[in-house]
Amino acid sequence: MIITSALVYFLAFSQGLATPLANPQEADLAGRPSKPKCSKPAKRLPWQALSRKEKKAYIDAELCLMRKPSKLNLPGAITRFDDLIKPHQIMARETHQTGYFLPFHRYLMHTHETVLRTECGYKGHQPYWAEELDIDNIQNSDVLDSVTGFGGGVLDTLACVPNGPFKNYKLHTGPGQKNTENCIERRLSNIATLTARQEYIDYCYQFNTFEDAWPCLEDGGPHNAWHAGVGGVMLDPISSPGDPLFYLHHTWLDKVWWDWQKQKPERLRDITGRKVSINPFFDLLSNLPGNSTITDFFMGNIPGLPSIPGGGPFSENNRGPPTFQPRNETIADPVKLTDTLTVFGLIPNTTVSQVMNIKDGILCYEYVDYEDAI
Ligand SMILES: *[C@@H]1O[C@H](CO)[C@@H](O)[C@H](O)[C@H]1NC(C)=O
Ligand SMILES: *[C@@H]1O[C@H](CO)[C@@H](O)[C@H](O)[C@H]1NC(C)=O
Ligand SMILES: *[C@@H]1O[C@H](CO)[C@@H](O)[C@H](O)[C@H]1NC(C)=O
User: Fold this and answer.
1) How confident is the model at residue 32 (pLDDT cuts 50, 70, 90)?
2) Cα–Cα distance measured from residue 130 to residue 93, given in angstroms and rounded to the nearest whole number
3) What are the tens digits of pLDDT across the range 291-320?
4) Which range, 75-79, 126-130, 327-331, is most confident?
5) Would the CB of 290 count as within 6 Å of ligand 1?
6) Using CA atoms, how far apart are residues 80 and 12, in angstroms rounded to an integer?
7) Which InterPro entries does the entry mention (predicted)?
8) Quick one: which ligand is closest to 303's CA?
9) pLDDT value of position 279
């Protein structure tokens, strides 16, 4: 494995080691077994199990990112929080409906956690949203608490976040590929949350290969459920990291992928898929007619635009069983373990193989289930 010295330093930092390099030979000479690289995995906990103090520390760190100036100098980025939206926005076509989707988002969650820790003094780890607790009742979620959480939203109505710590934040990135000043909008939807239920996850888990399990997780219900359930900025497939809830949702999805991966060792190396999405909506969403919104698009409210297969994320079909079918397509040049992943220097570039195992490569964490965390 070839790693740059910057990456070695970064690893040492993220794992809290006193020295950048633990020398395995030294350990052998002292007669002790050499230390495994990820001997003390960080615990990623559900938000709903955090103490009030832990919740405040995370939100304070996010607010710190929102106050710090951008360092990437990409168009539309004013704050450091905006910098984190940029890789997702600019590379939307490469990182959605492609083999990079799950590895890239895992790496992006790790990037967010790292930047909170290194630039905003956050001592905790990246929490996730235990979504199973809030299905069909999202408006009462502990996550959306106006005092201890991320603020709420209005059921079935598109509106700026009405309360909580992010009420006054002005986004400078999005919607889509545009960069306009906007509040963080939400539009809570319970019908959309239904495809995060266990029946949908189990349906995806029956698939044995990444080729089939990944599109099921991405497009077959679990991933879309919370993007549409929170709605507004979160419904934007390009600029959704504009709502800090993005990181709680995608960390949950990362856990869902990991819970599938850990069942069989070969799944830690199983990767494929196209490298660039062929879905025309990446163009459509940045050029919607009149003053129609991304919400209008996904609700099928824009005359003349193609309808969404399955009726879109707000369909009554969500009450019924999953209907995802594997694509069964041949891809000429599929994603490989050796392919590079980048977040434009927010943290060093890496490769897909480095993020396939959450306790190896550049990563060292584990997930704690809600029942075990309370
Ligand atoms: C924009 O929205 C307003 C209010 O919803 C509506 O009255 C108007 O017709 C819309 N304009 C266009 C060009 O769609
Ligand atoms: C998948 O595609 C191949 C080639 O196009 C075809 O022969 C095969 O029957 C398909 N399998 C399924 C399950 O649809
Ligand atoms: C990181 O990867 C990107 C995409 O492959 C590449 O353009 C860039 O030069 C890389 N940066 C470094 C520092 O290697």
Assistant:
1) low
2) 28
3) 889 999 999 888 888 777 667 899 999 999
4) 126-130
5) yes
6) 23
7) Di-copper_centre_dom_sf, Tyrosinase/Hemocyanin, Tyrosinase_Cu-bd
8) 1
9) 87
The average pLDDT across 64-71 equals 98
Total residue count of the chain as it appears in this document: 374
The span from the CA of 176 to the CA of 246, in Å, is: 15
Residue 292 Cα: closest atom of ligand 1: 14
Confirm if 151 and 167 have CB atoms less than 8 A apart: yes
Residue 20 confidence class, pLDDT cut points 50, 70, 90:
very low
- Where does residue 222 fall: left (phi above 0), alpha (psi -120 to 50 degrees), or beta otherwise? alpha
Q: Which atom of ligand 3 is nearest to the CA of 348?
A: 13
36-373 in CATH: which number?
1.10.1280.10
Ranges of each domain in the chain = 1-35, 36-373
303 lines ligand 1 (CB under 6 A): no
Q: Specify the residue with its C-alpha closest to ligand 1, atom 4.
A: 291
Q: What is the pLDDT of residue 340?
A: 98
Report whether residue 349 contacts ligand 3, using a CB cutoff of 6 Å. yes
Residue with the smallest CA separation from ligand 1 atom 3 is: 291
Task: Tell me which residue of 100, 40, 153, 141 sits closest to 351, measured CA to CA.
Answer: 100
